[in-house]
Amino acid sequence: MYSSPTNETPDDRTGRAIIRDEALRLFAEQGADAVTIRQIAAAAAVSPGLVVHHFGSKDALRSAVDRHVLDTFDRVLAELTDAAAEAATSTTASADGSVSADRDPAGTGSMAEAMLAHLPPASPIPAYLRRLLLDGSDAGTELFGRLYEMARATLAAMVAAGAASPGRDPATRAAFLMANDLAVLLLRDRLAGVLGFDPLSKEGMSRWATEVVAIYGGGLRERAATSEENRP
Amino acid sequence: MYSSPTNETPDDRTGRAIIRDEALRLFAEQGADAVTIRQIAAAAAVSPGLVVHHFGSKDALRSAVDRHVLDTFDRVLAELTDAAAEAATSTTASADGSVSADRDPAGTGSMAEAMLAHLPPASPIPAYLRRLLLDGSDAGTELFGRLYEMARATLAAMVAAGAASPGRDPATRAAFLMANDLAVLLLRDRLAGVLGFDPLSKEGMSRWATEVVAIYGGGLRERAATSEENRP
DNA sequence: CATCGAGCTGAACAAATGAATAGTATCCCG
DNA sequence: CGGGATACTATTCATTTGTTCAGCTCGATG
Fold it and tell me: In this predicted complex, what is the ipTM?
């Protein structure tokens, strides 16, 4: 009775969507446990009763936000794979879990950086995804599992293309690459504090990627290429 | 009036220490905000009033646990540097902030893994440090800044020893290495879920370090050394 | 037009929580 | 020994929080 039983996206356009978006923003900023229904209601300019009227309970609202964020994640991911599939024709699966390993535009398989570019600059989605990955929720487990499968597929594709070695333990290698990628998202604010720039801003991603590409390309000892001199 | 004004460690041995340790354990498991004073009191087998009697308030207890964890961090760090200084005689500074960059036993500068070995297996300290790094507390800022300075010093030492290149941007390079190192701690449970082993267990650290050393050593493309064949 | 239902409000309630208070026991030091 | 401080308990209070409920508005529909 609370929501349309088929799908929530079609009827999402009125007060219900406003409440969900404000909850998403506040949850991303402070964490769901630290946000009260009254704060959400105030941010959405409605009464506290309306929030529970639409979603049943705070926990149900949290679940609704989880689903909405995961849906957005899937949609942005589909945009990414579609955009990457323009160059090379390959079997692009739909966003039901199986993904085609044909992206890697920057050369390092940075999922986080690629997603950031396809979201509004002030989107609360990245911060919410960060919290999903860090708390022990089921939605976070599903998200992390999907990211891990993407990382494994990406590494396998790079191996097939001769761009990488599978290493002694491909699963651990893919997990290492994925963890490094996610670390920038998880420690974004802290890194910005010590570095003086946001590593997920446009300029920051460039500076970060420079080091990532250098180390992934030739290891820690390889001298940095200043302007020319590409061959050691 | 609540605690001895000089230092808290000397008089810490009775009920006060029990309460602090139980609070540390519960805070590490669930996060400080999710733990109630009554839960801490029950875990310490005392009355709720005694908790606030010893620490004044829940927030003061949180600060006391923060200080205790940071002190433990400094102590373990000193053990590490002392143990590393046995081989090479160098100027080992005291744990007042400045550190000597002469460790790096594994060859990759893994601070997290080195610290884990110097703590009891079931210590709540790693999980608490993880939460310190992830929330926006001042203690977390101080801890992160210290880790960053250690990473910079370690990279500088490796450069001086010819074991690494400073890269185009040494600050970002050091931050990247540190973030990768911390990612294992931050995503420990999630990685264990998909990999099937704890990456911070003894066996897990070995498998993880194998890939880290391989990639940091020669980049992603370098073939894995199976048993012999060290030269490409 | 009447009525049904959905969106919505404001007040109220029960449970939980941090904190304060009064009082008791226990230990330490002169 | 004795007195004062300290460790500690049991009770109580004020506030916050999620949730419920009765009722209002208003557009659609038969």
Answer: 0.86
